[in-house]
Design a protein that fits this description.
This protein has helices at residues 5-13, 17-36, 41-67, 86-96, 125-139, 152-163, 179-191, 204-211, 227-237, 245-260, 282-294, 304-314, 321-333; strands spanning 79-83, 105-109, 170-175, 199-203, 265-269, 272-276, 302-303, 337-341, 349-353. It starts with a helix and ends with a strand. The protein is an alpha/beta fold. Strands 2-1-3-4 form a 4-stranded parallel beta sheet, with helices on both faces. Strands 7-9-8 form a 3-stranded antiparallel beta sheet. Strands 5-6 form a two-stranded antiparallel ribbon. Helix 4 packs across helix 9 (227-237). It is built from 13 helices and 9 strands. InterPro entries: DUF1835, DUF3658. Residues 80-204 form the DUF1835 domain. Residues 240-349 form the DUF3658 domain.
């Protein structure tokens, strides 16, 4: 139920273009009727009540849509494969399709973006809402601000789903060593801390260096890998021993320490994930803008998408384009970059170093 402007904002960010048009059309018609009806204060009260009914109906329709995306049916399941993100999960499904046991295999993804934002105890509703609001405030202007794909309610239900996995079911967690996926892995293990399931970790970064020895490529995130490469990793790792109690305790402690760190950007450094201030990449972003500026005529603006792409291509970290664009907008607000255009999406505006006219 929509009880506050925060709830309404959350609903808006999950609507597609046609739903927004329909909502605005109905609001206009109702407002126009109210302006032309001179029956007095009672009518305006009725008008307000009708708007609330409209918003309530919007929320109920949204709930029905979410119900159309069912959680995995765990009946008859013998193993469940978990990935940090919907896209890599799709590759894993394809990779395992040729192996026996498809009928007893289930798949699930943690779709929050754990590489940024405050953590804390995400099983607590207040901490989860604080994180959700932080992300809404910073990413809602970006083209891929559909972090907001994950509604707050879905995130709240994550704990109950993980707790519903029968303890006889084997749990396989796939990840690469970066701030986002490692944090998601640790959180998944935290949610399973009271369960006795056999848990195996599929560290694709380490497996890539073993299976493709001699390759100069370093795997930043699981989404870089092909389904054939993932199949090879499953053949190599599928029969490995599950985590011991001692290993699980160490990983649980790693989560608790990470969740308590104050930084809001997760980076992979010295074989561990750590939280750092959100502006930690600003200097690197400015360096990439300076490099692109040197390739152009004096005073020329650079497409923001080009800047973001240059940063992502040069940065040895798996940081999403939405966050990089957010930091570009902050650098504009701080007066370090000039802007031309409208920042409603990165393809609509351009930037340059301040003072390069």
């Amino acid at each position: 139920m929509i009880k506050s402007v925060f709830d309404f904002d959350n609903e808006l960010h999950q609507m597609n273009e046609e739903e927004l048009r329909s909502l605005l059309r109905e609001l206009y018609l109702r407002t126009d009727m109210a302006l032309h009806d001179k029956s007095g204060e009672a009518h305006y009260t009725q008008f307000a009540e009708r708007q609330q009914q409209l918003f309530s109906r919007l929320h109920e329709e949204r709930k029905l849509q979410k119900a159309g995306r069912p959680l995995p049916d765990l009946q008859h399941a013998q193993e469940i494969h978990i990935a940090i993100g919907e896209s890599p999960l799709g590759s894993i499904k394809v990779a395992l399709g040729k192996f026996p046991g498809r009928e007893s295999r289930r798949f699930f993804s943690l779709n929050d973006y754990y590489g940024i934002g405050p953590l804390g105890d995400l099983t607590d509703a207040c901490a989860l809402q604080r994180r959700h609001l932080w992300l809404l405030e910073r990413l809602h202007l970006t083209e891929h601000g559909s972090y907001l794909l994950q509604g707050l309610e879905q995130l709240r239900h994550l704990e109950s789903f993980m707790s519903s996995i029968g303890e006889e079911i084997k749990v396989m967690i796939w990840y690469a060593n970066n701030g986002h996926e490692r944090t998601g892995l640790l959180y998944a293990l935290h949610l399973l801390r009271h369960r006795q399931n056999p848990i195996k970790l599929i560290d694709t970064t380490a497996l890539y260096s073993v299976l493709f020895e001699g390759s100069e490529r370093h795997v930043l995130h699981l989404g870089e890998l092909t389904s054939d490469q993932l199949s090879m990793m499953w053949e190599h790792r599928g029969n490995a021993d599950p985590l011991s109690s001692e290993q699980r305790n160490l990983l649980e402690q790693e989560w608790l320490e990470l969740a308590a760190q104050p930084g809001t950007l997760r980076m992979w450094k010295d074989d561990a994930v750590c939280s750092v201030p959100e502006d930690s990449l600003d200097e690197f972003i400015m360096e990439q803008v300076a490099k692109l500026t040197a390739e152009r005529t004096t005073g020329e603006f650079i497409n923001t998408a080009r800047v973001v792409g240059e940063v992502l291509g040069s940065l040895p970290q798996a940081v999403g384009d939405s966050f990089i664009e957010y930091r570009v907008r902050q650098l504009i607000l701080q007066g370090k970059l000039d802007m031309e255009g409208s920042p409603r999406a990165m393809r609509f505006y351009r930037v340059r170093m301040t003072g390069t006219v």
